[in-house]
């Protein structure tokens, strides 16, 4: 077995509950669910189809502002952005477009246009996306390669604190969540990119290329 983020083969058991095992890479410290315990794409999409998030939902807008606000403070006017994993009701892209930026959408299930992954962007966002990635190493490296020099990658995901907190952590109970990051994992990733992660609040991480 290999780590789906760094490819390392030093894997240990981190936690087990009645439904799944959670393994940890000793190199990058990613925690992940083994492939045979993950949902199929059909099962996964059926859950996503139940999401009711839309730009008209003020609470959802406020949630996304946790990433949008610090990102907007860093962007030049009229920047070109990609919202990766926009979901069935794209909203972050609407917020950023309202502030004068140009947005492109990509989502495996709801906006699957591979052509948008063949051009460069000034910034890329991924809100509540990385925890769903089966191969986060390949996916995140692909996004990093799509950034223009000086560009920003802004992510939002809840982070692992430690084993004791993990046991009672609601975030792990969502069966579509299969990859769990900590500050150490994001720091490892930043080192591979020759970057430095900015941790903003409890769940926002911004990298600059």
What's the layout of helices and strands?
Layout: E1 11-16, E2 21-25, E3 31-32, H1 41-48, H2 58-72, E4 80-84, H3 92-98, E5 102-106, E6 121-127, H4 136-146, E7 147-156, H5 163-167, E8 179-180, H6 183-192, E9 198-200, E10 204-208
Parallel strand pairs: 4-5, 4-6, 6-7
Antiparallel strand pairs: 1-2, 2-3, 3-8, 7-10, 9-10
General form: globular
Could you give the order of strands across the largest sheet? 5-4-6-7-10-9
Summed up, the helix count is 6
- Outline the low-pLDDT stretches: none
Which percent range describes the beta-strand content?
A: 15-25%
Please give the largest β-sheet.
Answer: 6 strands, mixed
Q: Specify the structural class.
A: alpha/beta
The total domain count is 1
By DSSP, the count of extended strands is 10
Radius of gyration: 17 Å
């Amino acid at each position: 077995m290999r780590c789906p983020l760094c490819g390392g083969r030093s894997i240990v058991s981190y936690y087990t509950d009645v439904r799944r095992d959670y393994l940890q890479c000793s190199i990058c410290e990613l925690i992940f669910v083994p492939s045979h315990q993950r949902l199929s794409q059909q099962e996964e999409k059926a859950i996503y189809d139940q999401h009711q998030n839309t730009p008209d939902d003020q609470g959802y807008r406020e949630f996304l502002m946790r990433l949008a606000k610090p990102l907007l403070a860093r962007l030049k006017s009229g920047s070109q952005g990609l919202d990766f994993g926009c979901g069935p009701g794209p909203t972050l892209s609407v917020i950023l477009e309202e502030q004068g930026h140009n947005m492109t959408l990509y989502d495996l299930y709801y906006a699957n246009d591979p052509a948008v992954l063949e051009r460069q962007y000034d910034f890329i966002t991924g809100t509540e996306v990385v925890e769903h990635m089966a191969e986060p190493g390949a996916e995140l490296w692909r996004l990093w390669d799509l950034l223009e020099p000086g560009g920003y990658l802004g992510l939002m995901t809840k982070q692992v604190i430690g084993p004791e907190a993990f046991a009672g952590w609601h975030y792990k109970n969502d069966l579509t969540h299969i990859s769990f990051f900590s500050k150490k994992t994001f720091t490892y990733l930043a080192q591979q990119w020759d970057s430095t992660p900015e941790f903003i609040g409890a769940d926002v991480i911004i990298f600059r290329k």
